[in-house]
Fold:
Amino acid sequence: MSQTQLSSSSDTVLVGTGQLIEQLLKGEFICKVTNEDGLRALKNPQTRERVEDYLNQINRTVCSAAEGDVFFCGYLQLGDAERKVVSSQFKEVCAALVPMVEWLLLVQEANGQDEPLREGMPIRLTDLQTCIEDTPAFSEQLAKLSGYRLFGSNSSSTDGQLKLVFKRLVDLGYLIKPNAEKQLFIATGKIDYLYEVIRFIDETEGLNLEAQAETATQRDLL
Amino acid sequence: MSNNLHQAGVKLLKQLGRHADVVMDVYLSGSINEGQHDDKVVEKLKKSGILWRPEPDQDLRLKRSVRALLEEALSDERNRQIDANVGSALATIKTLADHYKEARANSDYSASEAYLADLNEHVYSFTDSLRYSVRVLWGRINNEFGYVGSISAKIRENELAQSQVTELLNGLDMFQFSELGEIAGDIRQLRKLLITNMQETLSQCTQELSVVQARLFELLGRFRQIQGRTRLLKGWLLHNDLHPDYVVNDHVSHNNIAPLFNCSEPLLAAAHVDVQNPQHELDLLDIVAQVKAINHTDKPLNTRETEVAFSLDDTQEFAIPDNPLKQAVDEYFCAIIDSGQAQSALEYLAQKQLPWDSESWIYQVIGGYEGLPEEHKRFFELEPLGEPDPIYSGNYIIHDVELWLA
Structure:
């Protein structure tokens, strides 16, 4: 009796991890916003091991970022082919950094928030649009950043630029749109991953970005 | 003396009550707009020490004690004043205890009573102010310093609160219970007041203050992280602006790649359909049902491989050979006309020894009769021959039909 119960419970866990493994193999980032159950499963050592066992068979492993709140799929062993992939992915991330940072600051400033976007924070597209349209400086920034190759918009209207940028961000996994009818977007853990990438570059290259920003703001205050 | 005090106190409170509007206006706006209120009232309040003028050319303000009373009673969150002066409270308590002991030793009971009451008052107000300070700190933590707008202001507020906590904790360290124990000696009231009562409150407050301190650190960390992220983003853009030819180092060319950049490529594509799986059958049928066949008209028409020429000729005559059964029925009808006698279909069949099955014969006869044009039909009568079913009522079994001339 107890054995059957045990086997049935492990079965349901397997069903749950199936979807999780699929998401990982699709290159998606697992966080509280994209898959809360999956995140919990990965935080649990038992299920994590199960997923890890599965992925190890195809030279993949579970990697984590943002203090263990974001998970993604990486290579277990890096051969020449894998290095090539990692290197091209890295180049992609680096190319996305400037447009993404400009976008993050635009959203933060347009919404008048102290805090830049992080996982779980909502953005109401209509509010943002009104604010950007009302402020010429913001619409200029938007026009500039929507022209980057990452977004690739050649629309001249704020509406068109904004819609395309958000669509691209959803496609890239930085945002999700929980309800197809509503213009509400939620930031995913991939945004937090981005901060970590910048911080990593900052620390390893000794750029002192925070200090640079602070001296600049102090100069502005003077 | 005490009667005078009582009367004066009542008078002051009544005054406060009477001019509550003015007092609250001043409390909320910080200073009084002298033109707005009655000069007499303002003068009275000034005289009784509720309003005061800090500088000759400044507006009138509320006295600190009245303000503190209101802040505490209204739990106003703007209140960030904390009385961390434990040292003076401790000194007062010690002094009063000494007075009490002296009066007791001199058997001056009325004086010792008065000192004890005073001492009680001081100890209780001290513990109360401690508890109040902790409460104020919690209030500020719980709304995350919501009364100031920006993150840097929140960080400054947090630092202020941290310094206040440190001061309070330092002050509490000054309490040496061994020393208080010596002062209290073996006097029961003093021991109860100074040791039991105080120790309980102090240990509670110290405990709570350490929790407060931890929470403040945590909050400060979070604020710093938020601030750090904004600065990180701004710094990144600034750096890119200042160094237009800056390219990120190739962090993945080392032997050890940081786990952060170890992203595998997407591997999974959509799976294929298994048409053999009976469990999927319904779903697949659904999907197939939704498939729309779209025939585009611009698709080239199929042309015949060989052109077949054809011409319009006169239609060739053709005849459909009559069914022999039908001809036999026609003959049966003619036989009836010739003889003028009623004859059943089966009799005719037997008489002529026709090769057809009796049932199909009867059907053909009925069909032939019904198929006649209306004016011909009127010449005949067709009567079914049969009987009701022996078991099932309402059923009529036909064995034969009889035809005669009407």
About this structure: Chain A has nine helices and five strands. The beta strands of chain A are 60-65, 70-75, 122-124, 175-176, 184-187. The two ends of chain A are 76 Å apart (CA to CA). Residues 80-110 of chain A form the longest helix (31 residues).
